[in-house]
Amino acid sequence: MAIVTEAVKESLLGSTEEPQLSHQSRSNFVRHAQKDENGELFMNEENFINAVAPKQEDYHKIKREQYGILFSVADRRRAGKLNVTDWASFENLLAKPDAEYEIAFRLFDFDGTGSVKFDTVQGLYNMNKSADSIPFDWNSEWASLYGGRSKSRHDMTYPQFAQMLRGLQGERIRQAFHIFDKDGDGFIQPEDFQRIILETSKHKLSDHVLDNLPTLCNISTSNRISYANVRAFQNVMREMDIIDLVVREATKKSKDGKITRTDFLNEAARVTRFSQFTPMEADILFHFAGLDAPSGRLSQKDFAKVIDASWRIPVIAVGQALATGHEVAEKTKSVLHGVLESAHHFALGSIAGAFGAFMVYPIDLVKTRLQNQRSSRPGERLYNNSLDCAKKVIRNEGFTGLYSGVIPQLIGVAPEKAIKLTVNDLVRGFFTDKETNRIRYSQEVLAGGTAGACQVVFTNPLEIVKIRLQVQGEIAKNVEGAPRRSALWIVKNLGLVGLYKGASACLLRDVPFSAIYFPTYAHLKSDFFGETATNKLGVVQLLTAGAIAGMPAAYLTTPCDVIKTRLQVEARKGDTKYHGLRHCATTVWKEEGLAAFFKGGPARIMRSSPQFGFTLAAYEVLQKTFPMPGEGEPITPTGHVEPSVGGQGAKAPLPYLRSRNALKLILDLDQNIGRVQVPRPENWPKFLQNSK
């Protein structure tokens, strides 16, 4: 038994053995610490707040100064400052699975005994509550169940304290309801309900819910709010993670991305083991989520106003909108601004596209050489495979031979990528439902195919010049005295009509490629990586999605690419001369078989997949390095993404997330804990009291 007790105590209070100091912990400490008179690094409370509460995070719910509460938890030596070992111990505590509750427990366990005195909890509450706070009875039946009656109080262990803390908010709401239910009929006024929630739950609810609390009375025929309404409201607020999961699953199955109350309850029955939500709870959820959408069919955007506790219209943006209003709107909508923005995106896209094309150009050259190889007999083949082709190109033409024809490729890739991306975005935007941000799969395919068709205007001339430059090194090796031609000579020799030779084959390749690529890319982002309106993906995720989407698009369109290459390459003496799509396809089938249609397929995957990855990564970096001048945050409802069951986890640092969640529990006691308190009038200096 003693061993078990010691193990529990060690779990809560930490062992005497110093925690292992990781490189990351030391780096975090050094970055925020300062030196004392002896040159030793230490953290004071301000340094600590900077370390656990980065300034760029959202503090409109829990004020940044309130993170100073946790300094006393980290200051285990009660020295008023933290050394590197104290910080490492606190970071180790944050990494525990139940860190939020354990941090709260250590805050109240002043003496480090492994238990919390009930009077300590009550004392901290009394110290922080304001003069006009709704009273709370610490001698109630509920309180006695956890700490014993007033004459026989007992200390609470960690599990007991954690359970008490979990139920504290509900008990505060229950007692407050009794105070305002003066008639004892089980009803209170809407403004009283609003005051109760603002005092007990403001730090956990979105501004949208808080601003519309009095409207809860509208879910019934009465103009007052019953205790059943209050309990149902509280249950809804506590089950936000489950609600988020149910909403995500239900909207995925809906054709238009919207669901009704019935859809929600049916999906909840599938997702949860038991019936999780009562009819009244569903009514309350749909009431608050549907205040701006009275049709009863709601999208994820509607539910986000309730589910995401940080949902709000940024104060700065609102201030700007009120201050400049019409001028800002006119400026952002001006033709000049639109032209400059398009030019900015076009320039960045051109550079990124050229970078991506340059990085994979040797693979593209190998692919072209393999596809142009006519013979099916091993003894007559110049190249056995992609690696053999690359080796022979380097041996016969030098390393620069791998970049034959790269200049026209870089010149042409800018308008090609710009047109493809722009047309796809325009067509997708036309078909996308503005409210739900949903688009049908057939419309996604149409948007991609249209983009692929439009790009052929630039792609075909680019491809035919590039291909002829890529294979002329091979001709020079096999044909003595064969001259090397420049890109300009090829353009002049072909003429305008000749530059579009094989355009039908180019269409045959680019239309299905884009029709496959863009929908696949969009669904990888949303369905696999969890991108939403509030959850933006990182560069690595976007790069990965782009690379994966390019694989099936590239390989499945390889037969079309082979036909295009054969039509656009200048036929050598003795080679079959093709007269069109059908003639080329049937001739290749008869002379070389099915396998010939997939020549260079792996090389095409190796080129297309990383090319989109490089292009996308470069574009993201360029956007961050060279942002659009004057481009600011959009004036739209926003907020930091709260972690959820069905969605992507928050991207904020772990110390901040864990510290914030611990504060959410602690502030259930009183939302003013840790805030700078204005002294009560009776505590003001006498000269101020006399001046009132």
UniProtKB/TrEMBL annotation:
It comes from the Eukaryota. This is Mitochondrial aspartate-glutamate transporter AGC1. Residues 96-131, 168-203 form the EF-hand domain. It is found in: Mitochondrion inner membrane. Calcium-dependent mitochondrial aspartate and glutamate carrier. Transport of glutamate in mitochondria is required for mitochondrial transamination reactions and ornithine synthesis. Plays also a role in malate-aspartate NADH shuttle, which is critical for growth on acetate and fatty acids. Transmembrane segments: none annotated. It comes from Penicillium polonicum. GO terms for molecular function: calcium ion binding; L-aspartate transmembrane transporter activity; L-glutamate transmembrane transporter activity. Keywords: Calcium, Membrane, Mitochondrion, Mitochondrion inner membrane, Repeat, Transmembrane, Transmembrane helix, Transport. PANTHER family: CALCIUM-BINDING MITOCHONDRIAL CARRIER PROTEIN ARALAR1, MITOCHONDRIAL 2-OXODICARBOXYLATE CARRIER 1-RELATED. One of its GO terms (cellular component) is mitochondrial inner membrane. Solcar repeats lie at residues 340-430, 439-527, 537-625. Homodimer (via N-terminus). Its main location: mitochondrion. The keyword Transmembrane helix applies.
